[in-house]
Known about the structure:
The structure holds 2 protein chains of 2 kinds. By secondary structure, chain A is an all-beta fold. Chain A is built from no helices and 12 strands. In chain A, strands 1-12-3-8-9-10-5-6 form an 8-stranded antiparallel sheet, with no helix packed on it. A 4-stranded antiparallel sheet of chain A has the order 2-11-4-7, with no helix packed on it. Chain A starts with 32 loop residues before the first strand and ends with a strand. By secondary structure, chain B is mainly beta. Chain B is 0% helix and 54% strand. The two termini of chain B are 12 Å apart. Classes of the chains: A mainly beta, B mainly beta.
Amino acid sequence: MAITSVKTGSSFTNLVKYDTFLGPNSAYIPSSFESIASSTPSGTNTLTFSSIPGTYKSLQIRFSVLTATAGQALKMRFNGITTSSYSTHYLLGYGSGTSASGGANQTSMDIGGQWNGTYTDKPMVGIIDIHDYSSTTKNKTARTFSGEDGNGAGEAELVSGAFLSTSAVTSVTIYTTGANFSSGTTFALYGIN
Amino acid sequence: MASTYEPIATTTLGSAASSITFSSISSAYTDLRIVLTAAGSASEQVYIQFNGDTGTNYSQTYLQGNGGTAESLRQTSVAYIFAGYMADSAYGSSMRGLTTINIFSYAGSTNKTTLSEGNNDTNGQGLVSRHVGLWRNTSAITSVKLYPSTGNFTTGTTATLYGILKA
Lengths: 193, 167
């Protein structure tokens, strides 16, 4: 029953009638860039984002990495697949030159550290974009922009990779080729609509 | 409470200015992102400094192409991070370059690494570049100054600062 009048002397005066349950409030509009999960690994060389919902159009992973020893490359796998189901290409600049390479039928996808590898006190950082990750009809392509600078060494890297599977991506594993992540390392997973 | 991807501040220059500074930056986020559409009165290079630090505590490595040459360059122990290219107004008053700057774990206690993209095309001249920069300082970043290597940002230059928050 709608309230259409209030008697004088009641505690409800100056009553304003609204036509929706929102009242004077704005409608909630879900964000198109949402934080799904994050991890700050230390003392281990691997982390996994699992049970990733298929409700977004794209995923983005932003990372800042330190490792216990230098010279580590970063790799990525999907859905726990460790077989030759990936291909990758990269273009990088290392200050005095450029380099490009690639590989087919790889057991993982590159995401950074191809030239110098990570430092112990100067973070390697990156942004990974994975579009159409939940598709069940397309192979998956990832794009990474990463880099590190150590005031005399380092590289800026552009990396692409393919996961040769039409399965939806439900987990992402990132690992170093040797030493563990150190305190101060952060990985954050975002969903984009 | 901070949102996942939130505009913190924005400015559009009503007149030419030698710099744009975002100050009193909250530590509530994980990363910062700056989007700059700009033209320079006398240069194409966008520099940044943090927390008013004008010492030679910065360095960078970058990859660039200018339409004829692809190369990688590096600067060590300099007084700025070279973030990318913008348009030089000498090529047209309506030209603008696009520079995006990502600053990771800006409020943390490690040295600070940035990734930035420079995109400048003025129909016959231009550069595309990808940069990694380092500020050798473990203090939290509370201010960011953007400025051209020489001269001013022109009228209409727009800079927006975003905060990105992890779960």
